[in-house]
Amino acid sequence: MSGIKIIFKYTVVVGLFAGLYSCKREIPKRELISNYEINDFSELFHVFWTGLNTNYQFWDVETVNWDSMYRVYKPKFDSLNLRPYSDTTTNLGFQYMADMTKDLKDGQYVLQLWSGGDYRFEDSLYKSYISFIPKLQRTQRIRPALPDTLFDYISQYNYLDEFDYGVYKNYNTNVVSQITTGRIRKGAKDLLYTGINNFMLKESYDAKYVTYPPRPVIKNLFDNIHKGNCDGIIIDLRNNRGGNLEDVDFFVGQFTAKPALYGYIRYKSGSGRLDYTPALPLNITPQTGATDFKKPIVILADIYSSALCESVIQAFKGLSNTKVTVIGERTYGTAGLITGNDISTNGGSFNMGSFATARMSNAALLDKNHKFNFSGISPDVEVTYDAASINTMLQTGVDIQLEKAIEFLNQ
């Protein structure tokens, strides 16, 4: 490992739950703020341990004993210096880093090995992987994620009349955002439907030169919300991996005429392990033309509804004059965002030169009761997908979660 330069780098990143389905994606370039010359694995360990010790958002509630990790793993990294440098030696270093962090609570945590490598996690071998994402890998053992296109196709062709959609791509991140709207054709009630695959609504609303512009779709949806032009609304956030913090106001703020508290946010205040800012209140800001939406709202969520999407659900739950029901599965449980600038937030992701990157929240989110959402938001009405119901949906187009939402609103 001689001569490897370990570099801490930072960037401005929106709070997307990026990397959710990509274990072999490109790692974005980051703004360089300082350099560390690393000549061996001992120095790599020091950078990794210190970076997490300094930048991690949840040490005050974390069950992992980070000081114990130092005592146990420092000798192991030191011993790697005695081995001939090879892919096997690199894999061992990657394995040790994975073992040290496999139980961290932060749902945004990702360890990326620049050159790729092998590691074992909960008795499974992950071979030639770039990314170690413990929260995702545990979730995938419950069931694989269903593609956005499946939900879109089934809703558009089996459940919706007058459907419309807009598509926007951010060419810096290559993230594609789609919104679908329409009227549910089943049941006696006049139900509005919208499916949102991630929260880039404001960004896509303001975008120009888009082939399938979301702006008119979003504007029409908001007009119907302001007028209460329906008997209820289904907001489909399944598989929604998060997005931009501004969308909490831009979207949820269409449903209320007055501010509402929905949670708290905090950052690192310094380089000390427990240097945190006070928890700052998060309030929904009503948007122009908004009135209190008095019709029932059903939110569809699943185990891949994550990050900022969970904040949006909490914000809807914070609306005092609106009945909001979550149907589906317990959400992902992220508890943090990657938002703004890592320098100004004194925490978050860091690079280890040509070896690895540690990616994590630079903002911690708490609910109205000052609790961290590590376990996800529980649905009010649980409807879970399993292999049999997924196969039935593929064969017949019957979406059991959407069916339950329609049944619930037609009671």
Automatic annotation (TrEMBL):
Sequence ranges assigned to domain Tail specific protease in this UniProt record: 172-384
Family annotation (Gene3D superfamilies): 2-enoyl-CoA Hydratase, Chain A, domain 1, 3.30.750.44
Any single Pfam family the record assigns to this protein: Peptidase_S41
Taxon lineage: Bacteria, Pseudomonadati, Bacteroidota, Chitinophagia, Chitinophagales
SMART domains (alphabetical): TSPc
Organism, scientific name: Niastella soli
UniProt name for this protein: Tail specific protease domain-containing protein
